[in-house]
Amino acid sequence: MQRYRYHILVFLLLLLAGLWFIPDREKGEPVENFEAFFRVFEEHYALAEVKQVDWNREYDYYSRIVTDSTSDDELFAIFRELLARLDDKHCYIYRFNEIYFSGFGLPSLNYLELLSFDFRVPADDFSLDVVEDHYLVDYEKSLTVMSLLPPVGIRRVFTTGWLRDSLAYIHMTEMSPKTQAVHQAIGSFIENYQDANGFIVDLRDNIGGYSLPVKALAGFFTDRKRLYAISRQRAPGGIHSFTEPDYWEIHPQPGSPYAHQPVALLVNENTQSAAELFTLMMKTIPTVKVFGDTTSGVFADTRVGRLPNGWEYRLSVRKTNDWQDRSYEGIGIFPDTTVVCTAADLERGVDPVMENAIHYLLNE
After folding, report:
1. What is the rounded CA–CA span in Å between residue 363 and residue 356?
2. Nearest to 233 by CA among 300, 288, 184
3. DSSP result, 67-88
């Protein structure tokens, strides 16, 4: 048995080594891959104007540099430079054992570094442990997700509980695409806390994901249909070419008794992407007030593809603005009440954002 296990271990190590070293995904042909990269961004990238990047000028410059003798490392470095100019957290370029994320101010990451990568910046302005230990009377967690993509690990999406004075609390770590499970968790929250005098919806450190399933929660707090965003898909024909705008709305949940309940929405710099779209939904509702810090400023839908040499890329293919057609891309959504929470506050077991939200709800 011991000998059998030894052979299995050796096989697995050899397999891992093969996966690490053997695949030759980089097939050379730098000019072809350079042209493919520029073409897909020219035809589909939605934020060139927002980011104030002249893609034609970039092409003219780099097309003189890239030749048949350009190495893979040199070509990857050029793509890194271009994505750094975009400063768009939804964009990346990935080759075997190396990935570069735009917008984070970080160098390229290897595979092991990618395993520990977290899209949240180290702001030290929020701790769910502090909320659970010092503010919630009791709480429960629901919807377990396991991710093999960053941030890698097992997480619970929802944390719900009672605060003092019959206030209800819900925190979401991300916007899960599991529509049925999300709707079930939201339905349980609404049912279990139907006697609440007010609600705190906490989106701090929410890494985003998919905004459509969680629209159901916003629907419980609105008394009518509300336009929350205007979104346009990029179309071929130049950086100003887009499809006709899509008008995104939230709709009231039939018979909801919470449409006039006061709601405090908590956000910070790590409230990203789909969580920001949910913030736009909630900001259209008069009974909702937003507390905390300015959000991340990442709104676009994305597309993933591959270059001829196998390198993977992701780019933003939609320009999504608020209901008045104002862009917050790269800017973020400003809270109604800015509240700063520091690491020193959290060490003392104090969350000033929570304190302000509770004070608002009790006075409402």
Report:
1. 11
2. 300
3. -TT--HHHHHHHHHHHHHHHT-
Helix (H) or strand (E) holding 355: helix 352-363
- How would you write the pLDDT of the chain (364 residues) with one tens digit per residue? 545 454 454 454 445 444 444 444 456 699 999 999 999 999 999 999 999 999 999 999 999 999 999 999 999 999 999 999 999 999 999 998 999 999 999 999 998 898 888 888 888 999 999 999 999 998 999 999 988 878 888 999 999 999 999 999 999 999 999 999 999 999 999 999 999 999 999 999 999 999 999 999 999 999 999 999 999 999 988 888 999 999 999 999 988 889 989 999 999 999 999 999 999 999 999 999 999 999 999 999 999 999 999 999 999 999 999 999 999 999 999 999 999 999 999 999 999 999 999 999 999 7
Other Cβ atoms less than 10 A from the Cβ of 193: the count is 18
Chain center to CA of 195:
32
One-letter identity of residue 21: F
